[in-house]
Specification:
Layout: H1 2-39, H2 66-70, E1 75-81, H3 82-86, H4 89-101, E2 104-110, H5 112-120, E3 126-129, H6 132-140, E4 144-159, H7 173-182, E5 187-189, H8 195-204, E6 216-218, H9 223-233, E7 237-240, H10 241-247, E8 254-257, E9 264-272, H11 282-293, H12 295-303, E10 305-306, E11 309-310, E12 313-314
Parallel strand pairs: 1-2, 1-3, 5-6
Antiparallel strand pairs: 3-9, 4-7, 4-8, 4-9, 4-12, 10-11
């Protein structure tokens, strides 16, 4: 009786182990079938020519070819004086160029001195500025190339209609500066090393006065902001004609002196030298120069007017 009971217990244990093993196998097979069913209908991940799995595109976006990624993305950087920007001229010219060549032009508006430094560092591809002597010198030094005299206008002196310095009828700009300084009348200077500021300083050098004192306000601003301040202060300032005409209706300032040959204002366009900065987009910059100098570009420049008045004249003016 004892022996029979022992064998019965052993048989029960053996049957339990078999049952556990069979259950485990069934579960494993079920999981394998379930996993296979979930994977049906899904494409295998792509592999490269070496049989390695390729990375999936991020954010679920389809991958594009290199041509598709770069198409329409070509651009050049134009460093230019605030007068061409504030006047609205570039808003007329650059969309035509982009439509024609598919090259976007990103504009950096600065004083001419700052724009020249930007180009010298290679932080722009092309420049449109107005300090001819400095431009030619920097071309000679190798910073820029392919310079062209692209357009011109002139500088003028504007001030309050009351004209307390008595500039109306004065012909020489140096005499006008003397009248302003000797009478202590407010003069607002850009003070930003722009082409206009450089012209102003060259005029002061031909007088016996130094531009300093309570009457002389050096604001370090672009032409538009300088004109606004001159109007608010009812003072005088030297400005390019284009910016003044583009803002005339909002300013309480009048043209008080114009026509002195000293006030001639030539603009130049030039590319940053790729030998100095190999990364610049020289070929695209040349396309913009060619467009600006073409009959089409010159005609667009000549036809740009505000209230029936031309702001710029194409090509080269006087030496």
């Amino acid at each position: 009786m004892g022996l029979f009971q022992t064998r019965s217990k052993m048989t029960a244990r053996i049957d339990f182990k078999k049952l556990f093993l069979v259950s485990a196998i069934i579960c494993l097979m079920f999981l394998m079938v379930l996993g296979g069913g979930c994977s049906q209908g899904q494409e295998a991940p792509p592999v490269d020519e070496n049989g390695q799995e390729e990375a999936a595109p991020e954010n679920g976006e389809a991958q594009t070819s290199e041509d598709e990624q770069t198409s329409g993305d070509e651009f050049i950087v134009l460093a230019t004086t605030t007068s061409t920007y504030d006047s609205g001229l570039l808003d007329e010219l650059l969309p035509v160029f982009t439509e024609k060549y598919g090259i976007e032009v990103r504009v950096v508006s600065q004083g001419t001195g700052q724009a020249l430094e930007t180009g010298k560092r290679g932080d722009a591809d092309i420049l449109l500025v107005h300090d001819r002597a400095a431009e030619l010198q920097l071309v000679e030094e190798g910073y820029f190339t392919d310079r062209q005299d692209v357009m011109y206008n002139d500088f003028i002196i504007v001030g309050p209609a009351a004209d307390p310095a008595g500039l109306k009828g004065v012909e020489k700009v140096s005499d006008a500066f003397v009248a302003i300084a000797s009478g202590g009348h407010i003069f607002v200077s850009r003070g930003d090393d722009s082409g206009t500021h450089r012209k102003e300083l060259s005029i002061w050098e031909n007088t016996e006065f130094s531009p300093e004192g309570d009457w002389y306000l050096s604001v370090g601003q672009g032409m538009g902001d300088t004109l606004i301040m001159a109007g608010e202060k009812q003072g005088y300032t030297l400005t390019d004609r284009a910016t003044y005409l583009s803002m005339k209706d909002s300013l309480d300032l009048e043209i008080l002196l114009e026509g002195d040959p000293v006030l001639f204002n030539q603009y130049g366009i030039m590319a940053v030298n790729p030998e100095m900065h190999p990364h610049v987009k020289y070929d695209s910059a040349l396309k913009l120069i060619d467009f600006m100098m073409s009959p089409e570009g010159q005609e667009l420049t000549a036809s740009f007017q505000i209230n029936g008045e031309s702001l710029f004249f194409p090509g080269k003016g006087v030496e």
